[in-house]
Amino acid sequence: MSKKILVVDDSALMRRVLCDIINSDERFEVVAKAADGLEALELLGKNQYDAVVLDINMPKMNGIELLRELKKRKIPARVMIASTDSHEGAKVTLDALELGALDFIHKPTSAVECREGIFRTNMLDILGAVASSRLPVAETEEKALENRQTLARVMDIARKSSAKSIPGSKVVAIASSTGGPRALQSIIPKLPAELNAPVLIVQHMPKGFTASLAERFNGISPMNVKEAKEGDELQAGTVYIAMGGMHMNVVTSAAGRHTIHYSDEPSREGVKPCANYMYESLCNSRYDRVFCVVLTGMGADGTEGIKTLSKSKKIHVISQDQATCTVYGMPKSIYAAGLSNQVVPLEQIAQEIILNVGIV
User: Fold this and answer.
1) 301 catalytic, yes or no?
2) Neighbouring residues of 165: CB distance < 8 A, sequence distance ≥ 6
3) Among 204, 247, 258, 316, the one annotated catalytic
4) What are the Cα distances from residue 123, in Å, to 170, 220, 302, 341?
5) Which of the following is catalytic: 177, 221, 319, 340?
């Protein structure tokens, strides 16, 4: 049965173009259209759709205002952003992801360009992941309180048992894709500044967005969060987010210094950056243990890299569980390959990192 899609765009021409693209794929059927956020809100209050393709800049109620209203009214929806406003590094795109949108694509201003192969292919791929994803569920106040209390107990345990109880040098390496920015927001702000390891992150995002993502996380996190730059030396207590559009590697010097190096090979696993490069580069590192974390996302990025890494390093692999994944693809691949040491709900991943790595 075809997935039911709602298209929301103020341009009649663009609605037609998007509908033509979506209906050309037998997996989908556009069953409703709206010209602004108010129309969409009314439709979403009465009907359920497998996915919503949402523009941002619209009259009466724009896309961001619609997402806020859906959140306020607790109306669940699988939303992908398709907007001319979602250009490189656009703050509005990160706002949309924070408010519940699952993924995004930059929509060309020209209808002719929208019909071209690259946009069409990318849009249908993203829509497929969004329409098949888990329906977002808001965290209750009671659950949020319980998670904060648990994290406080974990921090107390970690402080009482010094970092020496977890010997050797360590690094945390995280891979995430669709649904990743929201998942990372449930992890990174909970990690303490005194974490006894650097944290590497490969989040599948285009060039420009990773710098904005790092800046946003840095403002709400005890750890220092930055977009990794060429030549950065890895330091404990710092989070390094891979730059979009390049592959991030860790280079180890003869003196044992670990630094960031970017390479410009073609996309791998259909993505760039690809987490496999990060994991494989750690094979030659001086770290005694590598803690791998694989979060929500379509595809299998991370599996081959971790499999290779396991042959030369002591590793501990945490994969996000199916119930809390937006898209159970990458963690499923890790689990199916027999690489998972732990399968953990999203809200528990930060505490597992702390317990495994220790604090100083």
Assistant:
1) yes
2) 358
3) 204
4) 39, 31, 23, 35
5) 177
| Cα separation values, 191 from 25, 126, 218, Å | 42, 30, 12
- Do residues 54 and 66 lie in contact, with contact meaning Cβ atoms separated by under 8 Å? yes
The answer to whether the beta carbons of residues 30 and 54 sit under 8 Å apart is no
Angle at 339 between CA 337 and CA 340, to 5 degrees: 120
Please state the length of the chain: 360
- Rounded Cα distance between 30 and 49, Å, is 10
Please give the Cα distance from 85 to 104 (Å, whole number).
Answer: 11
Helices assigned H by DSSP within the chain: 12-23, 37-46, 63-73, 91-98, 111-114, 117-131, 141-160, 180-185, 209-218, 275-281, 303-309, 330-336, 346-357
**Per-residue model confidence as pLDDT tens for the chain (360 residues):** 899 999 999 999 999 999 999 999 999 999 999 999 999 999 999 999 999 999 999 999 999 999 999 999 999 999 999 988 766 657 888 899 989 999 998 888 777 777 777 888 989 999 999 999 988 766 556 666 666 666 666 666 666 665 445 678 999 999 999 999 999 998 999 999 999 999 999 999 988 889 989 999 999 999 999 999 999 999 999 999 999 999 999 999 888 899 999 999 999 999 999 999 999 999 999 999 999 999 999 999 999 999 999 999 999 999 999 999 999 999 999 999 999 999 999 999 998 999 889 888
How many CB atoms are closer than 10 A to CB 2?
15
How far is residue 167's CA from residue 357's CA, in Å, rounded to a whole number?
9
36 annotated active-site: no
- Which tokens hold the place of 32? 């409703």
Q: What is the pTM of this model?
A: 0.89
- Quote the CA–CA distance of 287 and 12 in Å, as a whole number: 56
Which one from 9, 55, 301, 316 is the annotated catalytic residue? Answer: 301
